[in-house]
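REQUEST FORM: STRUCTURE PREDICTION
Request ID: SP-0412
Submitted by: Lab K.M.
Chain count: 1
Length (residues): 438
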Amino acid sequence: MRPEIRRVLIIAYYFPPLGLSGVQRTAKFAKYLYRYGWKPTVLTVEPGGYYAFDESLLQEVQEAGVEIVRASSLDANRLFKRTGVVSLPRESVRKLLSFLGDTFFIPDTKIGWRKRALAAAVHLCARQQFHAVIATAPPQTDFIVGADLKKKTGIPLLLDYRDAWLEYPFKYYPTPIHTWLHKRLERKVLRAADRVVVTHRRVKESLVKRHRTLHYNDVTIVSQGFDAEDFTVEPEHRPPGSPMRVVHAGTFYGHRSPDVLIRAVHRLVTADPGLRKRIEVRLIGAKRRQDGKLVTKLGVSDVVLFDGYLEHRACIRTLKSADVLWYVNDNDTQSPGKLYEYFAAGAPIMASVVEGYTKQQILESQAAFCVPLLDVAAHETTLLHLLKLHDAGTLPRVSSEFAERFERLKLTGELARQLESMMDFDRGEIIRVQENAR
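STATUS: Completed
RESULT:
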């Protein structure tokens, strides 16, 4: 007898073919939920202008049989509908745009998607039965659509906090009224939710502290992770005697900047010009003009190389070829998915981080070298130490046992348990469906 398959509607503004790290968690959940007895339909936005696109991720979820429904939106992305890839703005411009957006749009600039997304969701629910709804944020507009849909249909709702709401480090609250309105909205969607999932311990702690109706066990941590299937790609071939390769993957903004590493490399090669042929820094991701200017100004364009945005598998291939992986984070409320792909790649991690839970987790890998976020001299010293270990062949590695804790298939199982627990009855275990049972 074929096991029962349930349907889940996933509300996600950010989804392939849009690229960058914000889409990967949702895409991988959608890819693997069928294996746990849940058939997903994703409601997302019609793609307009964006900083990166990844058709390979879209193909991946389509091949997994995921239904994708798109609703148009009245937001800034429509202004770039015909331009495709949009260049990253200067940091000063980004801050100004964020400030203006947070001043005039609540909860975010994607609120123009709310009515059209809700109409599309109601239409889907009328067409077929859904047993659960997942809304993932940011943008927090997704949560509001989920709460609206719960009110109209009564379908159980799970909220997936990829990042914090009120404590999001790049969010502006121009007045106390803005803060109050956001807190009120968050309370509203939490009251509508049947389950709450977060990626980070600090987010869980802040939610429980701020909303007294929430108990500690009401919020479940399902961390970011990596997809083992992505890591079947072969690393780039590198001949013996190649320079030590330091790789970073991700987008820079705010205090999350390559400046400190670029300046540290400059100090190294100025003190010892021979190091220019012994170290190589590769920066994967959309390139900011200001970063390129700094590299040129300091004369290290032969050492610090910009790879631009790479499709996901190509990015993993470069990560696997790294001798050292560089991680930078200026707060302790976010846990970018790239960190967990670093764990899977296995190379030692030089982490430019603040004190907190994320730093503790990185140190648990036993292959980490943590450096104060903005300390150029400390970065220089650490790079030199890593170079000595590289030359001696004694660089540490992240163990596979540690990395396997964050495998996407296992994490999807945790999500499926939360979905299962929202049903009218609990069968006590997850239905596991073999791929050939489709």
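NOTES: Confidence is low (pLDDT under 50) at residues 425-438.
Reviewed by: T.R.
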